[in-house]
Amino acid sequence: MGKEIEKKFLLKENGINYATQPFYSLYNSLDGLEKQVQENGSQIIQGYLPIELEIDWKKELDINFNFEPTEIRLRDKAGKFYFTIKGDGDVCRNEVEKGIEKIIFDKYWDLTLGKRVEKIRLEKPYNNFKIEIDVYTDRNLILAEIEVPSIEIADALVPLGKDVTSNPRYKNKNLAK
After folding, report:
1. H helices present in 13-129, as ranges
2. Which of 113, 120, 130, 142 is the least buried, fewest Cβ under 10 Å from its Cβ?
3. Cα(147)–Cα(44) distance, rounded to whole angstroms?
4. Do 100 and 35 contact (CB within 8 A), yes or no?
5. Residue 61, CB half-sphere, CA atoms under 13 Å: how many?
6. Quick one: which of 120, 165, 157, 123 has its CA closest to 142?
7. Are 134 and 75 spatial neighbours (Cβ–Cβ below 8 Å)?
8. What is the pLDDT of residue 1?
């Protein structure tokens, strides 16, 4: 079981640019970044499963965790499949992720109907960490996430856009439709 410690920044939504000056030291423009993500990124589709069926997946997938799950996700990232359980939190939260076979993904995928997100992700090095830039293909939205090893480092990150880490509206489970 691991901890996910990350900051999430809104770069663009509905045509409004939220990128900050530090973002422009990495990329010349949001349009250029969006084009780069679409050309070089990985297609991701993910869906959110009903929490109340947690015990079934826990047994079938042999996943052990000792926290209260707030989201259970299936993800297809460019043909690689994952099952993820996350706990409550903003900057820091519990997370368990397991690679799964396509047959397991397909078995449960229909249960995510109406609770899905589609995006293209580009991962790039950023100050000894990794920045994940997501261009959502099912809406006009670009977010950037930076995962780090400690809350202190997360708190010291220079915002690349509007900090939406604590805004529940930008959690993928709430963006899912």
Report:
1. 21-26, 30-40, 54-60, 102-109
2. 113
3. 18
4. no
5. 26
6. 120
7. no
8. 57
- Give the distance, in angstroms, between the CA of residue 59 and the centroid of all CA atoms in the same chain: 25
pLDDT of residue 52: 82
pLDDT digits (tens, 9 = 90+) for 53-97: 766 777 778 888 889 899 999 999 999 999 999 999 999 999 999
Q: Which residue has the tokens 């109406």?
A: 114
H helices of 7-150, in order, are: 21-26, 30-40, 54-60, 102-109
CA distances from 124 to 99, 103, 131, 132, 159 (A): 22, 31, 5, 7, 16
For residue 165, give the nearest of 87, 94, 91 by alpha carbon.
91
Distance separating alpha carbons of residues 96 and 98, to the nearest angstrom: 7
Q: What is the pTM of this model?
A: 0.93
At residue 26 the predicted structure's pLDDT band, cuts being 50, 70 and 90, is: confident
DSSP helix, strand, coil percent of the chain (3-state; round to 5):
30, 45, 30
Contacts of 144 (CB under 8 A, 6+ apart): 8, 9, 11, 23, 131, 132, 133, 134, 160, 161
In the prediction, which pLDDT does 53 show?
72
